[in-house]
Amino acid sequence: MMDKLVLTSYERETNSVGQNQATEERRSVVKKCREELAAHIEKRTGVAIEPSKVRLVTKQSDVYTWVFTAEVAHLFSKNLSDHGLTAHKELCREVGQSFHAVTFAKASISADHPGLGIYRPLTYPPTSSVFSADSEAMVREDLCTHTTSQLYMIQESLKAETARRECLQKELESLSSEYEHLAQRFRQEVEKASQAEPMLYKCLQVINQMASLAEEVQQDCRSTEDVSVFPR
Fold first, then answer.
1. Are 142 and 159 contacting, i.e. CB atoms less than 8 angstroms apart?
2. What is the spatial distance between Cα 86 and Cα 69, in angstroms, rounded to a whole number?
């Protein structure tokens, strides 16, 4: 009974330690995530914001908002406090890569380029928002960078496709060469067979003639033997 009580106490302590570690890890990741997002917002937009007040689902009063690719759109469907540990880690990993902080004016420009794969939350303000030359230059730079990245991916894809086609072409040429070699050998064998057929026919004729001659000689020998045995 005592052993069971000791074991139960140990299990409780182990579970408690595990829960504390998980809680501490979550607190650390959430803190790091909010700090990195806040630093990114200030760097990109000039808007200083406390990490605890960072939002993913923004309002017009927040001044800033987000532009993001379709791959990370799920992260912006709810606020940070509603996300799990995995989402916080993904936000830390993708910030500045798959999504960026922008001012509302900059977001309105991005909305005019859906074909480039850049999306924005539905909470963005209308295009009548305040717009500056600096923000316009920044969004154009972002669009240029994104377009350049897309072109690079297309070029790499074309290079890979070209290499694959060249490989297939070489393989086809090798197979064609092998086929031609086999076809030539087949033609040679057919020619040899066609040349050997008349010769074989002649050999058979000679053999038949020799057989007939041998039969005649044999008959002559028999006739001679008969005459010598029965003289007149």
1. no
2. 18
**SS3 label, residue 83:** coil
User: What is the C-alpha separation between 126 and 115, in angstroms, rounded?
Assistant: 19
The half-sphere exposure of 3 on its side-chain side, counting CA atoms within 13 A, is 0
pLDDT band at 39 (very low <50, low <70, confident <90, very high): very high
Letter string b/e over residues 31-61, b meaning 16 or more CB atoms within 10 A of that residue's CB: eebbebbbbbbeebbeeebebeebbbbbeee
- Bridge partner residues of 67 (DSSP): 100
CB atoms within 10 A of CB 30: 18
CA dihedral 10, 12, 17, 21 (to 10 degrees): 140
Residue linked to tokens 């000039």: 46
Residue 97 has which token pair? 């890569």
- Please answer whether residues 18 and 40 qualify as being in contact, where contact means their C-beta atoms are separated by less than 8 angstroms: no
> Cβ–Cβ contacts within 10 Å for residue 66, how many?
27
**How far apart are alpha carbons 47 and 62 in whole angstroms?**
9
pLDDT digits (tens, 9 = 90+) for 109-166: 444 444 444 445 543 333 333 334 555 566 666 667 767 777 877 888 888 888 889 9
Sign of the CA dihedral with 157 first, then 158, 161, and 162 last: negative
- Those residues whose C-beta lies under 8 Å from the C-beta of residue 21, and which sit 6 or more positions away, are none
